[in-house]
Each structure stands twice: as C-alpha cells, then as structure tokens.
Design a protein that fits this description.
It contains five helices and five strands; from the N terminus they run αβαβαβαββα. With about 280 residues, it is α/β, with parallel strands linked by helices. The chain is elongated and about 115 Å long.
C-alpha cells in the first residue's frame, strides 16, 4: 500500500503543481475584469454580489473515499466543524468523499448533496456537476455564502487544512498561500485600460462560472495530492512499526527458545548426576 500510495502521490503532485500557475493567472484576470466592471458603473454580477444579511451558509467539504491516511480526514473535518459551530445560523453541506459524508450524517450534519468515487486523476468534466450544483444553489438563494473546506498540499510531510470563501467571489481577498508565488504583489492595481468585446459584463458572465469551477477543481487536486501524501506517510510508518514489532517478537521468541533449551539441558545434567549418585 505504501508503494501504491507513493505512485499515486507522484502523479497527483505533478497534476496539482501543473495547474497552480493557471489558477493564479485566472485570479488576476478576474480581479482586472471586476475592477473594469465597477469602473463603468455596471451592476455587479450575481456571483460577485454580497448579501446584506447572511442567514444561510453552504460548506463544500472535500475528504477522501477511503481511510488509512493518518489524520488527513480528521483534520479537515475538525476545521469544518469548528467553523460551522462558530456561525450564528445553521450551515448545509455538500460533501466530496465518503469519509466526510459518513461523519457528518452520523453526527447530525445537514448533507444536501454528496459526490464520491472521483477518479485518481479527475478532469474538469468530473467537477462540472459539483460546480453547477454550488452555483445554482447560490443563485437560487439557497445559500447567502459558500465556503470551500479542503486540504492544501504544501509538501509530502505537510498538508494544511484550509477553509475559504468560494461565493460570493471577492476579487480583493488574499489568495491561498501556495498560489502567492504565481501572483503579482499588487494584482488589484489596474495598470492600463483594456477594451473588452462586447463588454466586461458579458465577459464576466462567461468567466465567473468557469472561475468558480476552476477553484473547486484546484481544491480537489490539492486534496488528492494531500490524501496520497498522507497515506504514503501513514503506510510507511505502519511498515516501520510492523518491522520493529517483528524484530521485538523474533527476539522474544529466541529468548524463550533459549530459555527452554537451557532448562532441558539442566534437567538432563541433573538427571545424569542423580544416576551417578545412585550408582
């Protein structure tokens, strides 16, 4: 299992690292587009519009389908529960992965949709139904805000549970820590005037749903890389512990065997001496 997890981990790491630069550049484009739209006095796009009163919150929780990956699932579930308990209103869940779904249902969480059995190398098409569900529920007023709870891949030994707002999209919020190296220091600054055809509003209508889908897709890739890394480390620790246990048991076996042989030899010697004394 360690070798299988290591193989999957390498592929997942390559995929998540290959998409970070694209996701970061998409963020910069969105920031500029939103600034252009505000500059022309146009009405805000529904996915950019903040609600005056937050009464319903949705949480997209990303966990694994399987266990044996250390504290990976427990850490992100604990972070999501801590966030939900801090709200002054109930929250609904859209779960990706059976572990998070089973835990939340077992402990009374309101799971309104669940997605599982994603492939090891998911494509954007695999994420489209999830993104469409989230966007439609937000636009229909089922949620006033949506948060994304997932694990960010830092390196093989370090994965960081993260919870950030997905909707409404706020271009002025800080990007995730792993994407900052791909983003300019001041991406919000509009350095020039660009002409959009037909206009920034129409471009935003096409870009914002795709951008939301991209954020979920990137989060899934980060979670998969974190899951396989955590599983490889857990299986390596299990292998090391099993080898250590085998050594301890082997040593105990040899000690018991040597003790039994010694006792038999003492019995033989004692019997021989008794026979000589009688003779």
């Amino acid at each position: 299992m360690q070798m299988v997890a290591a193989s999957k981990m390498r592929r997942a790491q390559e995929q998540v690292l290959a998409t970070r630069a694209y996701a970061a550049k998409a963020w910069e484009v969105l920031v500029h587009l939103a600034a252009q739209q505000r500059g022309h006095g146009q009405a805000a796009h529904p996915l950019l519009l903040r609600r005056d009163r937050i009464g319903k919150t949705g949480v997209v929780l990303i966990t694994s389908d399987k266990g044996l990956c250390g504290a990976y699932n427990a850490n992100i579930i604990r972070s999501a529960l801590h966030f939900m308990r801090g709200l002054d209103h109930p929250a609904s869940l859209i779960t990706i992965g059976r572990r998070g779904r089973d835990f939340m249902i077992r402990y009374g969480g309101q799971v309104i949709a669940e997605f599982s059995d994603l492939p090891d190398r998911p494509s954007v098409l695999d994420i489209t139904p999830i993104a469409r569900t989230v966007i439609d529920d937000f636009l229909n007023g089922d949620y006033d805000e949506v948060y994304l709870a997932h694990t960010v891949f830092i390196n093989t030994l370090n994965q960081e549970p993260t919870l950030r707002r997905l909707l409404p999209i706020t271009p002025d919020q800080s990007p995730s820590r792993v994407m900052r190296e791909y983003i300019a220091d001041t991406p919000q600054r509009v350095t020039g005037e660009y002409i959009y055809e037909p206009n920034p509003g129409v471009v935003l209508d096409a870009v914002l749903p795709r951008f939301t889908e991209l954020q979920i897709y990137q989060a899934v890739l980060e979670a998969l890389a974190s899951e396989h890394s955590a599983r490889m480390v857990a299986m390596r620790s299990a292998t090391d512990n099993a080898n250590e246990l085998i050594q301890d048991l082997t040593l105990s076996y040899y000690r018991a065997r040597q003790e039994a042989i010694t006792k038999e030899m003492l019995d033989i010697v004692g019997g021989s001496e008794a026979s000589v004394s009688v003779a």
